[in-house]
Amino acid sequence: MRLIGWAIALAAAGLTPAAAQTNAAAPAQSAPTATAPAATTVTPPAGTAQEPNKPDAAQPAIVPGSVGHMIPTAGVGEPDGRKGVQLQVTPIGQEAASFHNDWLLPLCAAISILVLVLLVVALIRFRRGANPTPSRNSHNTTIEVIWTLVPVLVLVAIAIPSIRLLRHQYTPPPADVTVKVTGHQWYWSYELPDYGVSFDSYILKEANDPTRQANQRARTDNDGPPLLAVDNRLVIPQGKVVKFIVTADDVIHSFAMPAFWIKQDANPGQLHETWAKVDRPGVYFGQCSELCGARHGFMPIAIEVVPQAQFAQWVGQNGGHMPGAKPAVAAAAAAPANVTPAAAEPTGATPATQPATNQAATAQN
After folding, report:
1. Do the beta carbons of residue 242 and residue 179 sit within 8 Å?
2. Does the predicted TM-score (pTM) go above 0.90?
3. CA 233 to CA 64: how far, in whole Å?
4. How far apart are CA 351 and CA 137, in angstroms?
5. Cα separation, 271 vs 179, whole angstroms
6. CA dist., res. 105 & res. 354, Å (int)
7. For 269, left (φ over 0), alpha (ψ -120 to 50), or beta?
8. Domain residue spans in the chain?
9. What is the pLDDT of residues 197-239, one digit of tens each?
10. CB 203 within 8 A of CB 214
11. Which CATH fold would you assign to the domain 177-317?
12. Quick check: 311 and 236 in contact, CB under 8 A?
């Protein structure tokens, strides 16, 4: 037994230098990665106008009036204290506003005046002083027919233009641009799948807001009204049919743009569709219109409508490409494929050591 113990001790002593060499070699190989500084990302609080890995301070300088940063027009696409609906800039919005202003409101006013006149006549003509002996009549066929038919005719007069408006609204023409809209707590994400563009849009806080971080850009009047300005606007082309596919990833939101006559719920796990065709360039603002949590009132929507050429410029600035055009990344990746085999060989290499074709490599093997 004593001899076996000595043998084990000698074997362990003999293996010790090899283990030491292995341990010494390991730090040498990992040294380059150990010296590389670790990237640190500061995640801002929820609901701020800030992407965690894309601080506004690191973005290019904002040029008011440039594409994506058009200066809003006062009274267009934003609340201005007027009575009634906002100025409508889509065919559906104009039809709906005309139906409301030119038909429903006059009809409501006429019915109200008629009821008021009947009440005044009943109070004066059938008061106790004018009729000491009240009438005992309980039925009048003519009056009963009138008060049955007139409401039916009124409802028909309202239903015909209503159904026509719904048919126009829910039978959209073929879409020129498709935008996927996703609601989050508490910001919006936009994706243009045919153009390779996707981004998030957060509210811009005021300069004196104590919750605004130091590296966050503050709102200015060129960005839009308070609580409606965003850091990244959605840009769509003028005069094109834009289809919005609306959804959410957490709770129920509502994508509402008053100037487009759009208010579409965004439900998790469901895709809802709406559309707009805007012929007037400008900046238009909306908000989430469904109570979605503590910061529901701080997730605005800003859409900028520009001519087609400026829309193509904006797509390129956001790393996208127009349909039919080759993306810049794909073009750069395809460039080396045009290099001839001779040019691809390293200097001084012989054909024997670097076969030019797969057939030569197979023959050599």
Report:
1. yes
2. no
3. 13
4. 118
5. 12
6. 84
7. left
8. 91-128+143-169, 177-317
9. 999 999 999 999 998 887 788 999 999 999 999 999 999 999 9
10. no
11. Immunoglobulin-like (2.60.40)
12. yes
